Amino acid sequence: MSHPQNAAEFLKNQAKAKWHDETLWFVRDKRDRISKTIPEWENLRNLASQIKDNVLANLGSYLEQFEQNAIKNGIHVHWAKDGDEHNRIVLDILQKHHCTAIVKSKSILTEECHLNPFLEKNGVEVVDTDLGERIVQLLHQPPSHIVLPAIHLKKREISELFHEKLQTEKGNEDPTYLTHAARLHLREKFLGAKVALTGVNFGIAETGEFVVCTNEGNADMGVHLADVHVACMGIEKILPRRKDLGIFLRLLARSATGQPVTNYNSHFRSPAPGKELHIVLVDNGRTAQLAREKFKNSLKCIRCGACMNTCPIYRRSGGYSYGSTVPGPIGSILSPGLDMKKHSTLPFASTLCGSCSDVCPVKINIHEQLYEWRQEITKTHGELGKGLSMWIAAGIFKSPLAYKISGGLMRKALKVLPDSLIYHPINAWGKSRDLPEAPKESFQQWYQKNRS
Amino acid sequence: MISNSPKIGLFIPCYVDQFYPQVGVASLQLLEKLGCEVSYPLGQTCCGQPLANSGYERDTHGATRHFIELFKDFDYVVAPSGSCVLHVKEHSPAIAGLEKEQAELHHKVYELTEFITDVLKIDKLEGKFPHRVGFHSSCHGHRGLRLACASELNQTPFNKARKLLENLEGLEWVELSRTDECCGFGGTFAVTEEAISVRMGKDRLEDHLAHQTEILTGGDMSCIMHLQGIATRNKQPLKFLHIAEILNQAIA
Q1: Distance from C-alpha of A347 to C-alpha of A385, rounded to nearest angstrom
Q2: What gap in Å lies between CA B36 and CA B70, rounded to an integer?
Q3: Count of domains forming chain B
Q4: Do both B21 and B77 map to the same domain?
Q5: If you average pLDDT over residues A56-83, what whole number do you get?
Q6: How far A260 CA sits from the closest chain B CA (Å)?
Q7: Rounded Cα–Cα distance for residues A429 and A409 (Å)
Q8: Using one digit for the tens of pLDDT, what is the confidence trace for A85-131?
Q9: CA angle, corner B230, sides to B229 and B231, nearest 5?
Q10: Residue of A nearest to B180 (CA)
Q11: Which of B8, B16, B18, B234 to mutate to test the interface with A (most CBs of A within 10 A)?
Q12: How distant is the alpha carbon of residue A33 from its chain centre?
């Protein structure tokens, strides 16, 4: 399936599509309002962008510094070149501790590595403890948004799911009631898990510590109750100094949900006495992306999701229409680097409106990279039809005479051809739109008659 | 007003030339009324934007070379389109042998309203246009050329088109719920992502209708062609004009 097909499917349920658009617009609007209460907002974005540029330019040395300091702090550091290696490292740690059930707070990286199915295949029960992630997990779905994993679901659907899985009252859609039921259900899981897995929002090279941001406190709950904490971190998540966090934490929550700060910004530096702390540093295509000059700064992303909330296409097609772990505009510039063929339609799922770039807290030029990916994709995966008609157009446009003849023919054709032919189903323009009325003469003809 | 009557080349996008000659006429007459010496170099084709945005920038060398040769001797190049101007500035491939001309051209090509406000330095236009006007900001003009402040940014609000329109006697400016959301045209996107494109257009139209827009205008006829196409199909009571047509009528 391609993005256009998936989007058309999503739009069939018009009421729900409208609700989805309005819900995410509400989040974007909240982000707009709170960002405008910070006079130095644009300056924060500039600083964050520059710090991330510095990180990407010196990634190797920052990672080594982070590793040395983390080891000094008593953290076990692992390196994984790809998702498979990451998954095996995690499984090894679990097996060493004879652990068959883990709790996991939100980590898009583990989604990217497909950790859950791998662990389940190896006899480990994985419970996602972020409420939204637990909901989609119970539905056997992936997250549809990186910050709001169950944003595509309405209260009624969650009520039905909880009635079936958690035995809540049938038809009770009260969010407080449903959240309370989820809390009781998750509490049991927290108490039973020997190992807790988390993602990482920021790793600090200077101190060897890392920061995990959650609104629900579920990362802390899991980590503090378990004997072993495994943190999975993409190698681009490094920040040079602890004081840099002041910039990023201010930007992250405001960009993500319009909150002044994430509820829990938890710093992990050393294991508690008698416990173990592991960190798995994962490449999985990141160094390859770093080597692509035009696309490397996509690695500055802090996974706030603001570009999804603002994207008029994402809001109207839903996260699943992208068929990639990270959907939306940022996903559309990250995913082709992982598998260009599979994700070849994503850079075209945009009008290049530029809203994503203006909303991005680290100033990634997302829409310009979408344009650049298009240039790459057509070299190897251009559909013949598109390529051919475009090529003819290129021939016309460099020759004024050819342009004049074809333009004149087009205008005449529009006048004489019956509507049934102009609005044939294969003509996607005319399915829901009229064409402009063809004028009797072009501007050029008018000019020649009237001015020259 | 600029001194020594600089020579202005009128750049008329291909689809305006073919489908909306009245927009070309209005742009020409408007600039002349503002005291400019304007000419339209014959033999214009297309700047190459549809190809480039579809991923075939490499096939636009011919169109780009032709464009540079046609316009290189003008002091300014002005077009009633933010989108095509953005393409010329940012997405036309480097042309061997014309490097100097191309670099100069990128600094002297302007969208119509920014030419009036930034080069002619006209802040207020005297005229009359007693209608409720809803403005559609084309994204390439809006965020690409920065013709107005994007709602995402924390900036002092400004809008070059609004500056020209709102002084016109009788003109009521329509405040929209979503001031600068994309209409969904997007060039070939309108066809390749037909379902979303139409949905986006319908949503923009609903915003205008909910705020009693009488005439929907904008700086890019491509967005308007898309919005008008949907409105006509659904028999929605809106009129559509390019901003050049409004300004030209108003200051008659």
Answers
A1: 18
A2: 19
A3: 2
A4: yes
A5: 98
A6: 16
A7: 19
A8: 999 999 999 999 999 999 999 899 999 999 999 999 999 999 999 99
A9: 95
A10: A355
A11: B18
A12: 22
Can you read off the two tokens belonging to residue A224? Answer: 């503090």
Residue A12 is which amino acid? K
A15 touches B at CB < 8 Å: no
Tell me the pTM.
0.94
Strands (E), chain B: 7-10, 37-39, 76-79, 109-111, 132-136, 172-173, 215-218, 239-242
CATH code, domain with B38: 3.40.50
Enclosing domain of residue B89 = 7-119
- A·B CB contacts under 8 A: 221
B239 and B165 fall within a common domain:
yes
State the Rg of chain A over Cα: 25
Contact B46 A403 (CB under 8 A): yes
Residue that finishes a domain, picked among B75, B98, B119: B119
What distance in Å separates residue A372's CA from the closest CA in chain B? 8
Residue B247 CA to residue A159 CA, distance in Å, equals 56
Q: Which residues, at least 6 apart from B16, have a Cβ–Cβ distance to it below 8 Å? A: A443, B23, B24, B80, B81, B221
Main-chain dihedrals φ then ψ at residue B8, nearest 5 degrees: -110, 130
Instruction: Give kind and range of the element (H or E) at residue B199.
Output: helix B194-210
Q: For residue range A225-275, what is the model confidence (pLDDT) as tens digits? A: 999 999 999 999 999 999 999 999 999 999 999 999 999 999 999 999 999
Helix (H, G, I), strand (E, B) or coil at B224: helix
Q: What's the one-letter identity of residue A198? A: T
Which of A308-312, A393-397, B194-198, B239-243 shows the lowest mean pLDDT across its residues?
Answer: A393-397
Distance in Å, alpha carbon of B31 to nearest chain A alpha carbon:
14
B115 in a structural domain: yes
B87, B195: one domain: no
Q: Residue B124 falls within a domain, yes or no?
A: no
Comparing CA positions, the residue from A149, A104, A136 lying closest to residue A256 is: A149
Rounded CA separation A364/A344 (Å): 21
Question: B102 and B152: one domain?
Answer: no
B180 in the same domain as B76: no
CA nearest to B18 within chain A = A442
In a domain, B107, yes or no: yes
Å between B143 CA and nearest CA of chain A: 6
Q: Does A428 touch chain B (CB under 8 A)?
A: yes
Give all domains of chain A, ordered by start, each with its CATH number. Answer: 1-34+305-382 (no CATH), 38-284 (3.40.50.10420), 388-450 (no CATH)
Q: Which amino acid is at A396?
A: I
Q: Is B1 inside a domain boundary?
A: no
pLDDT in tens, A385-398: 455 455 555 566 66
